Please model this.
Amino acid sequence: MTKEELNIEIEKLKVSLEAHEEQVKDLSHDLKTAKQRLEDVDKPKLTEKQFADIHTAIESTIENFDFTNVDLYDPQFAMEYDGKVYLDGIDTDVSDELSGDIITSVEKLFGVTDESDDTDIVPSE
Model:
């Protein structure tokens, strides 16, 4: 082969490689989507209204949470060599309190049942 033929062959291979890279990207996206669908297939389904209600419950709980409650914070003080006291850190129990409030708000939206009860009950129409 001549140098010109080799350059043409290289260009053809580059074009072919680029086309296949796009196909690989598409296949990777399709694979990711299929894996997500498989993961989601057994999850309980929510209506858009139920999801909106959960969103509203979480949002309003966070907005109404009292972050200024000093009992939720545990300041850690330290002392320098010259006797100055400084705030070294703050431990907090806010996450436990807040998550409990969020769980309570969401539980108010739904009737919670034991999973074994779900399979035994046949819905009546």
In short: Residues 44-111 form one domain. DSSP finds four helices and two strands in the chain.
